[in-house]
Give the backbone structure.
Amino acid sequence: MTRRSKHRETADRLGVRAEAGEWCWIGEIPQPPADIAQAAGNPRTRPARRPPLTLAGTVLGAPFLPVLWLLMLLARAEQAVERFLDTKEEKERHRARKEEERRRDAAVEQRGLDNVFDGDWKGAAGQFLLHWYSHSTHHERLLFAGQDGLVFAAPPERVGMGRDRRAQAVAWLSAEEATLEDPFGGEFETQIMLIRFRDGSWLRVDTEEARSELHMYALRHAA
């Protein structure tokens, strides 16, 4: 089953009318001011730790890490040799990609998008962010977008496997509350999406796939 068919199956199971869906995550939530946190009931601002079975798999796989690192180094060396042997046109395309990456990174920093939200804890985005891990302790969200607004699905607790099967709707934002936005209007191929609230505040989410279904949905519905 493909990723998209899994997403559609989950949406159907949850009764969500979605035009697009993608797994995404947020950056590290900064520590809110004490009065803000207390007013919100001192919510958790970190996901749960990885399940024991996942940790066990990490420990068992540790002896193979040197081999993986060696393979990665060999792959990079191979790429370097291939770039050296590239034609003039291929080298020009590589330089163009690097330049686009530099422009993208500069735009991210210039617009403050290297932060998880706009910084105003009293704004709608900040208030929603405060309860992110109260909705679910899982580190990811399956975000659905459609005419009814945005639906966030996730396992109630963090899991190592079976996230689609265990996903439940954990939060909702109506179309009147917030919209989905590609902050670059399609200029760059990125994983960055913004949830733009009606008061102008925003929350950044990163999708698993660059220029995902959510990006295309946002571009289709851009004002």
Summary: Confidence is low (pLDDT under 50) at residues 55-59. The radius of gyration is 20 Å.
